[in-house]
Amino acid sequence: MKKKDLLSIADLSAAEVKKIIDRALKIKSRPAPERLSGKIIALLFEKPSLRTRVSFEVAIHQLGGYCLYLSPEEVGLGKREPAADVARVLSRYVDGMVVRTFAQETLQQLAKCSTVPVINALSDFEHPCQALADILTILEKKGKLNGLNLAYIGDGNNVANSLLLAAAYTGLNFSIASPAGYKVEDKVWQTAKGFASESGSRISSTDKPEQAVKDADVVYTDVWISMGQEAEARKRRQAFAGYQVDSRLLSLAKKDVIFMHPLPAHHGEEVAAGVLDDSRSVVFDQAENRLHAQKALLIEMYGKVGRTT
Fold first, then answer.
1. 9-127+290-302 maps to which CATH number?
2. Which residue, 41, 43, 122, 169, could crosslink 14 as a Cys pair with Cβ 3.0–4.6 Å?
3. In contact, 184 and 160? CB cutoff 8 Å
4. Dist CA 138 CA 135 (whole Å)
């Protein structure tokens, strides 16, 4: 059977996204069987991590598998050893790789040379695992996806790319407000338009946060300055002035709006102080759902065939 990697949400079909989300809901309500029993999964990380590392390690353990964490210093991708060689070696030892890397190109090289499935646990271009947890959270809180309005305020970054694609797959309407120069790349937008034409999702872009949040069921934001962008901090803060999610902006959305953020948050920057503790915030439920969504994904990618879950 052909090896399947998850480097982008677009590597899944709409049916597979639905299957993973439905499975995650079931897993959250009852323990999952040990579908990874006997499987060894390597976590290959170039970046620091809290939620991604812990949620994957716990998920693999609770599914009966064994997790092997490889730090940046231990591997030195592209420095100590070429990514291609790392992929070929690890393929001889493990059943799968979960990779958190700075560059999508590194991820693609690993996947190309690996004979075991590779999961993107974050790159500069996409964060598909986060998007799956986000869709799970919205469905859990709102009871449906189709026809809901999701407003994303801020940088058209990796999180925005994956969430846009996932929304377009599932019938969520997606509106993003970003300043000039920080919008979602056209190739991602065009892919999302194709998905939206099938699902009925409406996607739109603006430079006005107030326009994006009008009638929003969900308001979502992320940091303005990601890891590796520290040299651009001053420029980015100037560009994103006026894009902070605060109580005033949330008041323009629907009364039962929920607020989401993938964390870590820069309090007082992209999100006003206190908003994460607001009654409308589901941020920490969203963080918990990384565990459940990733269990479902791990079963889909590496799990042994079974009749349950």
1. 3.40.50.1370
2. 169
3. yes
4. 5
